[in-house]
Design brief:
Blueprint (H helix, E strand, L loop, with lengths): L4 H4 L5 H14 L5 E2 L11 H12 L12 H15 L8 E4 L2 H12 L5 E6 L4 H8 L3 E6 L10 H7 L4 E7 L11 H11 L5 E5 L20 H6 E6 L12 E4 L3 H13 L6 H11 L4 H23 L5 E2 L7 E5 L7 H12 L1 E2 L1 E2 L8 E5 L4 H18 L1
Parallel strand pairs: 1-11, 3-4, 3-5, 5-6, 6-7
Antiparallel strand pairs: 2-8, 7-8, 9-10, 10-13, 12-13
Bound molecules: pyridoxal-5'-phosphate (PLP).
């Protein structure tokens, strides 16, 4: 069979590759501890499940409006205004099957051949793959630990060309957990204000911030930023709803929303009707207590893992401000992150994701979306692995 050029260019996510290897070793009877999860380990709050059951029992099981039911889009608008200081109308929202699907739709609607998409590195693996899929060109901005893995106006200006179309901002970041401050976002605005660059703001980890750090949505900086920002969010991470599949895109450009609506109507149609009803519970704040508990637990685990890893000689890690990942500096042990992760998995049964999957060598990502006992045992094994090398 002759497959399309487009599809054969697509690579399998390296995060999935490591998870599969871990699963394989487990199936062979090896004792494997995985720290590669990209999802909270908590159960979905009961109030959301109850609402889903109500939706099923009341027969809310048919096709809906492609972009989502009005009640859901109104709840999204209310949430964006009250929590993020972003004013959108329901006609400026489209609900899709997870933030990943929202990004797919947005990229599809905006990227033409050779358009440049600026991606700060390290980055979430899906961005460059999708850019590639749509024929665009990824332009990476290399960051470093010294600047908290965040881009600066100077670094941004250096890569802007007449072909620059999109800038992707992920705050809190996967894989580093770093969060942009309001002042930093104002600096970024200063660097792009003379251009036509559109910002794709991936805010999927927005509710997972620690130490009372204030999250700022790029679109809330000023009106020009609101006009040029496409806000992407969803409930996967905040409400532990990864399997329910809900994400959304918000844009002041109603035509863009309409175009994505047409694409979605010809591909997936509306998202699951039951998920739509259930999600309103979270958006309206009716399970805030559960979300608070998730965050408290995550913060405890973050502090524990951060302390234990920094106690291991030759490893170091910055304290993440959000999300549920530690981006560990392994460069004193092995600069080749894939080799490091494979060796660690085979020798000690500990699965981390190599930094190269996020475009940065010398690092490995540790997800603390698992219980404290597993964190302690996993880090003990990492220490043993390092000691045995010397
Ligand atoms: C930065 C980032 N954006 C988007 C997503 C996708 O989330 P969803 O489950 O809503 O598709 C993920 C999931 O890992 C992510 O890490």
């Amino acid at each position: 069979m002759k497959y399309s050029n487009r599809i054969t260019k697509l690579n399998e996510s390296l995060t999935i590759a490591i998870s599969s290897l871990a699963r394989e070793l487990k199936a062979q009877g090896k004792d494997v501890l995985s720290f590669s999860a990209g999802e909270p380990d908590f159960d979905t709050p009961k109030s959301i499940k109850d609402e889903a059951i109500r939706a099923i029992n009341s027969g809310f099981t048919k096709y809906t409006q492609v972009s989502g039911i009005n009640e859901l889009k109104a709840a999204i608008c209310k949430k964006l205004e009250s929590q993020n200081n972003l004013k959108y109308e329901p006609s400026e929202i489209i609900v899709s099957n997870g933030a990943k699907h929202s990004l797919f739709n947005v990229f599809s609607a905006l990227i033409d051949k050779d358009d440049e998409v600026i991606i700060p590195s390290p980055y979430w693996v899906t961005y460059p793959e999708l850019v590639n899929y749509f024929g665009g060109k990824s332009v990476f901005i290399e960051t470093s630990e010294e600047i908290d893995f965040k881009i600066t106006p100077k670094l941004l200006k250096e890569v802007i060309t007449s072909k620059s179309k999109l800038l992707i901002l992920t705050s809190p970041s996967n894989p580093t957990g770093m969060v942009y401050t309001k002042e930093e976002l104002e600096g970024i605005y200063g660097a792009i204000k003379e251009s036509n660059i559109i910002i794709i703001s991936d805010e999927i980890y927005e509710q997972l911030v620690y130490d009372n750090i204030k999250f700022t949505s790029p679109g809330s900086i000023n009106d020009d930023m609101l006009q040029r920002t496409i806000t992407i969010n969803g409930l996967s991470k905040s409400t532990s709803m990864t399997g329910w599949r809900i994400g959304y895109a918000a844009s002041k450009d109603k035509k863009l929303i309409k175009l994505m609506d047409s694409l979605q109507s010809q591909s997936t149609s509306n998202i699951n009707s039951i998920t739509q009803k259930a999600s309103i519970i979270s958006l309206n704040g009716d399970c805030n207590a559960d979300i608070e508990n998730f965050n408290k637990e995550f913060q405890k685990r973050r502090d524990l893992a951060h302390k234990l890893i920094n106690n291991i000689s030759n490893l170091s890690v910055k304290l993440p401000q959000g999300a549920f990942y530690l981006f560990i500096n392994i460069s004193k042990v092995n600069k080749d992150s894939m080799k490091f992760c494979k060796d660690l998995l085979e020798k000690e049964g500990v699965a981390l994701v190599p930094g190269i999957a996020f475009g940065m060598e010398g690092y490995a990502r540790f997800s603390f979306a698992c219980g404290e006992e597993q964190i302690k045992e996993g880090i003990k094994r990492i220490e043993k692995y390092i000691l045995n090398l010397s």
